[in-house]
Amino acid sequence: ASEASVNNLNLNLNLNLCFFEGNIIGSGIFISPKGVLEHAGSVGLSLIVWVCGGGICTLGSMCYAELGVTIPKSGGDYSYVTEIFGGLVGFLLLWSAVLIMYPTTLAVIALTFSNYVLQPAFQDCLPPYIATRLLATICILFLTWVNCSSVRWATRIQDVFTIGKLLALALIIVVGLVQICTGHYDYLKPSAAFEFRQDPSVGQIALAFLQASFAYSGWNFLNYVTEEVVEPRKNLPRAIYISIPLVTLVYTMTNIAYFSSMTPEELLASNAVAVTFGEKLLGMFSWVMPISVALSTFGGINGYLFTSSRLCFSGAREGHLPYLLAMIHLKNCTPIPALLVCCTATIVILCIGEMHNLINYVSFINYLSYGVTIAGLLYLRKKRPNLARPIKVNMLIPITYMIFWAVLLGFSLYSEPVVCGLGMVIMLTGVPVYFVGVRCKDKPKWIYRLVERLTYMGQKVCYVVFPQEDPSETEPLTASKAID
Known about the structure:
By secondary structure, the protein is mainly α. It has 20 helices and 2 strands. The chain is globular, with a radius of gyration of 23 Å.
């Protein structure tokens, strides 16, 4: 019996690692190198940003591991902040996630997909604006239909298309190592690596970290399914200690491989870095690269659609979103209303945003939510010191993260006040929405009748109902409150 238990634990750890790495390693590594190099100003500093970015993600993940087992609710940041700070702060995080984080991230990945598919056909120029948006929209619509139709199909797409990203990264790293072994590493020598194109500034370095953080985004995704993780006390830390250093190594080696074959100027001029890499080194097999990256981004879109629906469910369960978004299809058990909302918001952002600004925009809001969540850990330590914590990290870890967080956001806002400030403005628009739509219980009766009628119509159109819910999910800290 004990041997079977150990085998099951190892199996669950492997599944958690696959989920964790599959969500972190996404399309970001095929997008962000250009932005990181542009803001860092030199090859050497850009590589330092990639390594340090992985280290910061490790610190954040360790804090999230403590929160994940202390507040064992699915929903990630939103669930923790709502539990610790109350409804308003939780609603603002949810509001920004539904309107900014997930739609913008999906838009960036979809644009990457269309760029890599179309770039081989437009080798001497950028793909047409309308063509990239149209193909990205078709991709979003198709994957929304898949996720609405079957959870099994969505899961299989995720499994199959993960191979694409691993193939592309493995090919880049191996070819890069061959280049280095044959003496092609001029731009990796210290004298050339730290030759700055522009004078480095703290603000530009902060923006370089924001660009890198887009590639690392997903390090907290395991917390969105905490309720489904077997033995999270053991498996969450193991997934963190194994996965994030491995991802950091892969990302750093990928960038080293890029610089072994491309000059910094060529990388900055490229609209699809991996395609340029393949054209220079793979010859007649260069077609492998755009196909592999397209498969990777296709799977990435599918994964984000899947996760966003879980967040909408958590928000609707708390009463912060319309109850229709917490409903699932009667036969397929898929969250159709939540998926349609995310799809619509993504298509709107696709039509109005430019990729580089979108990355800064979403990375700033992501870091803002990370910092608020980890501040919640510090607040919970002070307010409820006797709360049961199966995992308890050293206080230096969240404090170090918060210091880095404050410096990064402060200088990013100083360097890009319009892009970063717009995200904060949109987040703060959630304050009146919260007080009018959620907090106020004395609304006119006709509003309740209208909402009820729209919900009923949505149920009929989407053929959805409330899922059966475990009552124990709604009060995860009841027992621990008694301890305090």
